[in-house]
Amino acid sequence: MTELLKIDNLGKRFGGFVALDNISLSIPAGERIGLIGPNGSGKSTLVNCICGTLRNEQGSVHFDGHRLDGLDAHQRTHRGLARSFQLPRPFVSLNLMDNIRIPLVYTVAARGKHHGASELQDRCVALLREVGLDSKARRLPRDLTQVEMRKLELARAMAAEPKLLIADEAMAGLTHSEVEDILALLVKLNEQGVTVILIEHIMRAVMSFSRRIVVLVSGKKIADGMPDEVMRNPEVERAYLGQ
Amino acid sequence: MRTPLFLLVLLLVAAAIFAAAVLCGNDYVFFAGYVVMQYVVLSIAWNILGGYCGYVNFGSAAFFALGAYSTVAIYKLIAAQDFYSVPIPVLMLIGGAVSGIVGFGMGYLTLRLRGAFFAIATLALAVVLQTLIVNWDFVGGSRGAYIIRPESIAPFGSYIRYLFLMMMLLAVVAITVARLIEHSRLGYGFATIRDDELAAEAAGVPTLRLKLIATTISGALMGMAGAPFPYYIGYLQPASTFGLDYAVNSIAMPLIGGTTSWVGPVVGAVLLGTLQQVATVTISSAVNLLIVGLLLVGFVIIAPNGIVGLFQTYFRHKPEDFVGRRRVDTDSPETVP
Amino acid sequence: MIFSFDLLINAVVSGILIGGFYAAVTSGVSLSFGILDIVNIAHPAFIILGSYVAYIGNATFGLDPILTAIVATPLFYALGAGIYQVYYFAFEKRGQESLRGLAFFFGLLFITEVSLVLYFGVDYRYVEAPYIGPAWHFHMLDIPLRILVPCVVSLLLIAVLQLFLTRTFTGRAVMAVAQDQLALRLLAIDPIRIKRIAFGMSIATASLAGAFLIIIQPVEPSVGREYIGRVFAICVLGGMGSLPGTVIAAMLLGIVESLTSTFYGPSWAPAVSFGFLLLTLAVRPAGLMGR
Fold first, then answer.
1. Structure confidence at residue A210 (pLDDT)
2. What integer is the mean pLDDT of A190-215?
3. CB contact under 8 A, B128 and C225
4. Given this model, what pLDDT does residue C43 score?
5. Is a pLDDT exceeding 80 seen at residue A154?
6. Which of A113, A181, A187, C6 has most Cβ atoms within 10 angstroms of its Cβ?
7. Confidence bin at B146 (pLDDT 50/70/90)
8. Which chains touch B (3 or more CB pairs under 8 A)?
9. Strand (E) or helix (H) holding C144
């Protein structure tokens, strides 16, 4: 399996606070990774450094064979990286259709794939339908519930047609069946060839979805392996129960 | 409405306005009208960066003044009789080019800064530019520069009529450019920058490039508005040309009119511009600025979406289905991003 | 350009002293922008207002300008608190601080300045006091007292502010409100009240800074504009909210301005402070003693 994402000795500080401490990670294409850890352990910071929202001071990120350091976030998205934000960040003055349209016309188009007007519309509606928001296609984000906004976040990330999708706590607040729906969606994406990193606190979702789990505690990677072994790891137990 | 048709309608409106002004019989109408049209251009230009992208530019005066001083520089460079044969549109293009390049440069230096820092940086840049011009003797420095306005020009009669027409046509161009942006992929990109720049980057929007486009177009339009100014004013002086009055007006007019489309700046410029012309003549120019300041603060607190926003609330439309943005329930073929 | 050591040392000393004054002027912005993240671009206008209040006290009642300013401080505090309330309800609550908040303060700048023009006219106003006029001679140093006295009182003001921010409970709450509003709420402290206090103090400093200004130079309404660049340049360079940093940055700017003015002429002076600002923003947005 080819290596899609390679992180070497990634380090990030905020003033005196070490958010990420020498993180190294290798993710092959087509993988389903669960990234877990207590709040404040650095999961979102890691995502931000991978995607270019934050600049890491130390270490490097390689994606699809190319070095990402120094590239702006939008360039990384063009190369096939996509993420949803933990706290939804919709484009508030655009309706849902247009929210989805943005990655299509800026990212997908940048790769040379141009859609005609009606094709574009169909694509947007289809994506909204995948997350169950097609009935609200013409509404503004302010008319959505928190849960619906998370779904929009995910749909917008999917619209960028990524090779690697990072879903940052996309399922918070969802009901049992909604979680199942999103999981099914992510599995389907994975079967279509998209590598998925799932950052979640809902353990059963992480366990059922991931083929491999990475555990972050206080900015350090303390475990990386098959779900069963990781969950039996005493350090991991301590991190979750001993705190 | 397709763009060519829209342009035609605008030109017809412009022709009607010009005809009405001629019928008034008093050249003062043209002097006042010139200033109003100038503010229409400045407001639309400011709004492209401010309203569409959300980046506040306090340095409008600098771009305007650069356009004016480009004209002065040309005047000093070439002989008088040659200068007067240079048509205003050419001067506008040159002024626009100079300001556009400076706009690009300013953007390159400042656009990586967070919103508030960007605004302050634009103010700083305006002052630095002003200081450079004041110390540049070639264009008159602090003594100022004179350009004698010709008495008349065929077939318009008095020269001010020609100036007014040129400025009005520039306003037509500015409105058309703004509308084209709104309906294009660029306009949507601008909106994402305004709404959430971080998310825009993550979605693949090249935010820096778009912001540079916005500052360049905005600066160029302001420069074009400034190019004929030496003709209008006769005596150009750095202190007033770079004055904060231009900054406050180019911000107040779009904010009072409404920032989401080209309509707001036009409404704001026409209303506020006319009000100021009346106030300057009847009361004083200081009171004039006080009114602008009060209106700006008042509207920004009470009616943040401007006059256009008030209309929309009154008629209960949603902001995005007003002219210039796509309609909520239909998709016109032209709006293919 | 005649280079003389005499001229140089006087320029440097004068720069340091003016820098002390600049620090007082900037202290208000360190509070409002550095700590509260509110871009009060109208701050210089309030300083000019302070100058005129000192002028009235001096011309009408013969009071010492600094004394007048101290008396006027509670009024300025109330003004600041009131402005913050409006700002909070109109902008912070609605999340529209950036565009409209800036426009709001820009409008206030104009309203204040033009109101002063309408009421007082554009003539330069000055105050009279026993320390305006005489100069202190020390070897080759020529220090006018009208610059020395404001500098000393300015530094006193900064010291008091620093003590307040670091030693009192409210002061530390002000420092904290910038970083973690939630934490304050959990301690049953209302962050809005704290911000109101801080902003009120910010404008209160303008009263004193205004008095210092009119002691140093004659004032007319548009003088405030040249201070916009200075104030934000010093605030950013000084590390956004660090008062010691503000003092150092202010003196640095004062020295550079003084040297430029002495050796290249005063017409380049505005470009110095604004150029400084651009440089600072481009190179080190975190300032010298960064947060």
1. 92
2. 91
3. no
4. 96
5. yes
6. A181
7. confident
8. A, C
9. strand C141-144
B202-226 average pLDDT score? 95
| Token pair recorded at residue A115 | 């859609």
User: Contact, A43 vs A12, CB < 8 A?
Assistant: no
Inter-chain CB proximity C278 and B301 less than 8 Å: no
C188 interfacial to chain B (CB closer than 8 Å): no
Size of interface A-B (CB pairs under 8 A): 96
C193-227 pLDDT, tens digit each: 999 999 999 999 999 999 999 999 999 998 888 88
Neighbours of A142 (CB within 10 A): 9
How many angstroms separate the CA atoms of C23 and C39, rounded? 18
Cβ of A106 and B208 within 8 Å?
no
* Residue contact B191–A156, C-beta within 8 A: no
Residues 6 or more apart from C49 whose CB is under 8 A from it?
A: C112, C116, C206, C210
* Euclidean distance between CA atoms B164 and B21, whole angstroms: 10
B146: closest CA of chain A, how far (Å): 48
d(CA C78, CA A94): 41
pLDDT in the model for residue B79: 66
Neighbours of C137 (CB within 10 A): 9
Q: Hey, of C236, C260, C281, C284, which one would you mutate to test binding to chain B, going by the most B CBs within 10 A of its CB? A: C281
Query: What secondary structure, in 3-state letters, does chain A show?
Result: CCEEEEEEEEEEEECCEEEEEEEEEEEECCCEEEEECCCCCCHHHHHHHHHCCCCCCEEEEEECCEECCCCCHHHHHHCCEEEECCCCCCCCCCCHHHHHHHHHHHHHHHHCCCCCHHHHHHHHHHHHHHCCCHHHCCCCHHHCCHHHHHHHHHHHHHHCCCCEEEEECCCCCCCHHHHHHHHHHHHHHHHCCCEEEEECCCHHHHHHHCCEEEEEECCEEEEEECHHHHHHCHHHHHHHHCC
Task: Give Dmax over CA atoms of chain A in angstroms.
Answer: 56
Judge whether C85 is closer than 8 Å to chain B, CB to CB: no
**Which of A52, A95, A160 has the CB atom closest to B203's CB atom?**
A160
Chain C residues touching residue B120 (CB < 8 angstroms): 39, 41, 228, 232, 277, 281
What is the ipTM metric for this complex? 0.90
Q: β-pairing, A195-199 with A32-36? A: parallel
| Closest by Cβ to C86, choosing from B131, B286, B301 | B301
Instruction: Give the tens place of pLDDT for each residue, A37-78.
Output: 888 888 989 999 999 988 888 899 999 889 998 899 999 999
- Pick from B195, B207, B337: CB nearest A93: B195
| Chain A CB within 8 Å of residue B187 CB | no
Choose among B87, B75, B243, B240: nearest CA to B169.
Answer: B87
Beta-carbon count within 10 A of A191 CB: 9
